[in-house]
Amino acid sequence: MMAVSSLQEPSMPAATEGSDDLMSDFVVLPANDESIGFGPVAGSGPLEHLKLSLPQDDGSSLSTCSDDLTHQEAEERIAKVLEENTILKEKVAKSTAKIRQQFEAFTAWQKQLDKAQHALRAELAMAQLMLDEKTSAEAELQKQVQELAAERQALLEASRAVAAEHDEATKQAEAVQAVNNTIEDSMSFCDPVPGLLPSKDRAEMSLSQTMVKLHDEQSKTAQLTKKIEELTDKLERASRKTEEFKEIVAELSKKLYEADSRNTAFTSQATSKCAELETALLEKEALVRALQGQCESKVAEIDDLRRALLTAEKNCDRARRDYAELLHTWQEFENSNDAGERTFVRVERQSGVAASRQAEKHVQELAERDSQITTLKKDVEKLQKELELLPPLQAQVEV
Question: Is the whole model's pTM more than 0.85, yes or no?
C-alpha cells in the first residue's frame, strides 16, 4: 500500500502521513509552480495510521483510529482466547469426570450398605421367628409339665390314700388275726358258733385287693414319674436351646446395633459427602457460569475484532479508491515529467498491486477468524450442554 505524506495541487488538498514497504523515500518537484511532496514512511503494519484526504468537494475523509487493533494483535488475542477455552474445557471435563466418579463410588457404597442391612434384618427376622417358635414350644412343654405335675400330685394323693387304706387294712388284719388267735385259744375247749366270728377268707380277699390296687397305683406313679423326668429333660433341653437362641439373638442384636451405628456414621459421612458434592457442584456451576461469561466476553471481543477487520477492509477499499484517484491525477501530471517520474508511476502501480494482495490476505484472515469464531461458539454450546448435565447429577446425589 502506498503511503502519501503530502499532496498539494490547486484541485487536491494535502494528504496525511501513511506507510508502504515497497516505496522508498523521495521528493519530486514539477517544473511549474505547483508541487507534490512525498515524505518518509512511518507505520508499524498494514492499514496502520492510514489517513488520506479526499477532494474538497467530496467533504468526506478516510481514517482509522490509532487505537484500532492490528491483524497480528487480533490473531494473538483469538489464539489466546482459543487456548483459554481449551484449558477451561479440560478443567470442566476433569471436574465432571471427578464428580461422576465420586457419585458412582457413593452409589456403589450405598448399594453395598443396603445389601448388608437387608441381610442383617433377614437374619434378625429369622432368629426372632425361631425364638418365637422356641418360646411357644417352651410354653407348651411348661403347660404339659404343669398338667403332669398336677396328675402326679393327684396320683400321689391317691397313693397316700391307698397306703392309708392299706395301713388300715393291715391293722384290721392284725386285729382280726389277734382276735382269731384269742378265739382259737379260748375256744380250744369249745366249739365255735357259726356266724358269730368274722370270715377269715373275706379279710384276706380285701387285703389282696388292696395290695393289687396299691401295686397298680405304684406302677402308674412310676410311669408318671418317668414321664415327668422325660418331660423335665425335654424342658431342660428346650431351656438350653432357648438360652442359646437368646445368646444368638443378643449377638445378632449387637451386630444390628453395630450395623446401625456404622449406618449412622456412614449416613453422617454420606450427608457430609453430599454437602461437599453439592458445594463442589455449586462451585463448578459458578465456575462454569464465570467461564461462560468469559467465553461470552471473548466472543464479544472477537466480534469487536471482526468489526475492526471489516472496518480495516472498508478503509482499504476506500484507500484503493483514493489511490486510483491520486494515480489518475498523477497520470495527468506524468505527461509533463521525465523518465524518473514514469519510474515513480510504475512503483506506485506495483504498490497498488501489493495493496490489493494485502487486502485479499486480510479477507482470508478474516475468513479464518470467522471459522475460529464458529469453533469457539461450538465449544461454548458444548460447555452449555455439560452444564445441562449438572442438575441431573445433583438430583442423583441428593437421592
Answer: no
